[in-house]
Each structure stands twice: as C-alpha cells, then as structure tokens.
Give the backbone structure.
Amino acid sequence: MHNMEFSPEALALAKNIIARYPEGKQKSALLPLLHLAQSEFDGWLSTDTMDYVASLLSIKPVEVYEVATFYSMFNLKPVGKCLIEVCRTGPCWLRGSDDIIEHFEKKLGISEGETTSDGMFTLKTVECLGSCGTAPMLQCGAEFYENLTNEKVDELIEKLKTSGKRSSYMKDQRVMN
Amino acid sequence: MGRQLLLEHINVPGIETFSVYRSKGGYASVEKALKTMTPDAVTEEVKKSGLRGRGGAGFPAGMKWSFLDRKSTKPRYLVCNADESEPGTFKDRYLMEKIPHVLVEGMITSSYALGANTSYIYVRGEYMYLIRILEKAIQEAYANGFLGKNILGTDYSLDLYVHPGGGAYICGEETALLESLEGKRGNPRLKPPFPAVAGLYASPTVVNNVETIAAVCSIVNFGGDEYAKIGIGKSTGTKLISASGHINKPGVYEIELGLPVEEFIYSDQYCGGIWKGRKLKAVVAGGSSVPILPADLILKTAKGENRLMTYESLADGGFATGTMLGSGGFIVYDETSCIVRNLWTFTRFYHHESCGQCSPCREGTGWMEKVLHRLETGHGHMSDIDLLVDVAKKIEGNTICPLGDAAAWPVASAIRHFREEFEYHVKYPEKVKNPKHFEIEPFVSGKVLTVA
C-alpha cells in the first residue's frame, strides 16, 4: 500500500525517536518524524508520506494530516531544493527586510511564494524567526543567514547554485543509547 | 556592566563544551541539590529567590512549582519552553547556542526538585541547528554521569530529551505546547485543570521558560535569599534583554533588574544609542505583544520618575501610560519609523499565528490586518481608526489563551499614543503610498519633520 519507506538508517532513527516517549504515547513522536520524513522525501509531505508516518506510529492518517496542515514548517506541495525563507516581521522590517525580499525577487526572477523553473530555489516570506538582533535575516534549511545586505544575498545565491542541497534532519539528530 | 549570572563566562573559549563549563563551576547546583538538599528544599530556595517566569508572564516560578500535584501517583514532568517566537525576542536562542550546559544543568536541578524522571526541552522547529548543539550537550552530561540512572551515585535518575516544534507561535502558550508535545495541533486547552495537575499525558507537569530554568542554577548555588538581593523589590535577579531595531548595538544583554531604561538605550555597555545619529521615537519593551510607548513615556513615567527595567516600573501607569517587561524583547524605533506599518507587520503576524479555535481571535486578527493594510497603503478612512480600537476591544479577554490579548494590545496602544499618525495616513494617501514615507519625511509628535 505504501510506495515509500525510510532507509534503514532513517528507520533506526525513527524508532529511536519513538522510544523517547512513554509506552503508548508514541504519537508524541509525530512532529520529529514529520521533520525526518520531509527531509528524507524531497522536502515536502505528500499524502503517501503522511500515510507512511501514520503507519509507523500506529495512528490514523487523519491524525497526521490535521497536524501537518497546522504547522508552518511542513510543506504540503513540492518546493525547490533550496527553500529561502526571509523574515519580514517588525524588527526585520525595521532593518530593511523589504529591500532584501525585493532583491531576491529580482535576482531569482520569481515572486514570493514561487519556485524557479529549474527547481533550485523557492522564495518564501516568513514571520519572526528569533533573529531580530541580526536583522535582516533568512533561513535556508537548518542554517540562519544574518545581517543581510544585497551583496551577501548575491554571494549566497552563487554559493547555493553550485553547492546547495536539501538540509538533512538526520545529521541534526542524535541516536540515543 | 552589572552583575552577570547567566552570561558570566560567555567569552570563555570552549564554554559550550562540558569540560570547560565544568571547570568554570558548572553543574555545581546539581551536586549541591542532589547530595545535600531534599527536592522540597530546592523548591523553597526558588520561592525565596523571588524568581519570576522569564518567558513573558512574570509569574513567580517557585509558586508555580508549589502548585505541582505531589499527591498524584502519576509520573511528573518538567517541560522546558524553548519555543521562543515572540517578535523581538532571541535571548533563549543566544543562551542555548553559547552556553547549552546552563540549560541542561538547570533542567537536572529543577527536575530533581519536582520529582520528574523524564523531562523534555521543546525547541521551536526553526531553531533546528540548536537541537544539534543541545543534543551534544546532553550526550556529554550523560557521559559524565549527570544524566541517566543514579546520577552522581544517588538514587535519582533522569532522562532528558529535545523535542522539535513545527513552526507555530501559539505553542509558546504552555497548554498548546503540551498538546504539541503529545503530537497534536497546538490548540490551547481550557483551564482549569492547570498543567500542574493535568499537564503532559494528563500528569502533573511544570512548564518553564529556558531563562527561568537556567536561573535556578544560580539560585541553588547562592541560596534564594542571596539571589533575591540582586535587583529591586519584586523584580529580583538578572534578566536577559534582546535588543533590536534602530540602535547601534543590537544583541542580547544581561542586566540587573532595576537598570534605568535611559541607560540601557544610550550607554555604550548596552544598546549604544540610536543609530545614524537619529532620535528615539518609540520602544516596544517586552516583545511585540506589549504596549508600544513613545520616547517620553519609555524614559520617564507619567509621574516624571525615571523608568527602570523592572516588572513594576515598566508597568507603572497601567496601559494608559505604561507597558510590560514581558519577554524582554526590546525593540527600538527611530524618528523615521512608521508606527502604522510596524503595527501592520505585527498584526499580520498574529493573524498568521492564531490557532483558529476562538472566533474573536481568528476573525478579529484577520480583520485588523486588512484594515491596517489599507490604512498603511493610503486606502483607509478616518472611521477605520475607531474600528480598529473596537475590534481590539472585542478580542481582548474573550479568548481561551492570551494570544488574543497579545494581538489586541499593540493595536490599542499604537492608536492610544500615535493617533495623529493614523490620521495622517488617511489625510495624505498619496504620500503614504511610498512604503518609505517617513524615511523621506519623519513624523514625530504629530508633526512632519522635513529632513535637510
């Protein structure tokens, strides 16, 4: 029924994560498992992916859908390899986030919310990421890029064009003994 | 610089590692508590310290701990709220990134006091890189016998885990956080029952902010009475302030509560004054939710006294002329800032983050965002200003959780103190159509200042 499955390493991590919660409370592992699934399966959550996560946790698919649609970090449709999330809330706006967003739109030739035709970049605006003292800023994968200027944006785009890859949730997680 | 408790060793190379942290006296509170104190004695010290919750609400931490249902036969939990998402706030991130062990140490000492054998640190999902840092610190603590079974040879055991959120401001509300930790949507719960009685998995639970838990280390080391001598009156101890906006030195500063606001803004030890030689226009002192104050009222109270960085002084005058210390998210605005545009970004934030459970908040935040957008872009009407006040009033106090209040207060206060600026947006629609209108012609105290 499921046409997807974690790699043995990802599955081992998933089981390890589930064991962090009391017996019978395995549903608690849902958010970490959705992060893991999103990073393992092309950066977004398809219905198949969500059904697979439901099966791992022995919960109903709808319990996964209702959660995945609530939290802003889960992408419910495909996104570019590099998801550029520019903060635009008050403190970032005060330090010029509007100009940074405009510069990205010009450089990438797309509007906020769109993906470049080569599937490399998706540009998104987001609300406060807790980086107000180093504004303006953006997040790409697990990395924060701060004190942005147009020049820094140009450098980042060039860097990502050659070496940009999806962030991996695996490397951020520790397997507990 | 005043007394530093949390950030004392911030510049020591390698302080993020167990060995360096330990060499600077780290984990002393765990040793002292587990070997020489009963759990209730630790709670007693926290009560005596006068420590107030550092997440925003300022509720006395020791009292919150004392509410924990100790008669229940269910397991107890300590959950650390590291879902820092209040615009203008980035202190917990700074602390966890630079000195992760102070949180791990605080979690162990606090879990011991509360009788918890499993504890969680709920970190906002966007701080993914911090999870790597925290997990490394936790692993080091296990390896050195400070976590796991029979810590330091005592009969106390604790497992500590990091749990990622999914990107939702509402999960900073403690019952929404617990729902989220149970793998559900972050919908706040009706209270009572409070988490102290029925929290995580319906078990007795305490939820505390990162900075609150970190402060427990100093309290146990010095004793509650000594800690209470730092600060002024009911504002004891030190506080991390996240300073952002139009200042020369944005960043995180640890202050002794009681520091004059003026000194915090203008001293080179802290914000270093307003950038580009400009003048101060306004301050949001405690994160986006607290009332914005114009320059004269943030520096001095309505009675003419110097405003201090304390819970009481910032609140002096109530909402008519005062504000709140909140999370310590200190956002500074210079004379070119547009209060209407700033408010529109805040209101858009609350609309985006409303969980949608309560109609006044779900509908009201969206309505306010729309009205503010039309005012800011030169399509507003004079009646919109009172309409905003009316909508804010109808949200406030009418929702399950405080997000509704948090969305209403910025609107009400901006209009209370800057009504002329809203009127200007209606009177001069052509001017405000340029998003940088006040950078071209600053608008201060009801007047347009022409820039030379």
User: Anything to note?
Assistant: Chain B has a mean pLDDT of 96. The first strand of chain B starts at residue 76 and ends at 82. Residues 199 and 234 of chain B are 28 Å apart (CA to CA). Residues 403-427 of chain B form the longest helix (25 residues).
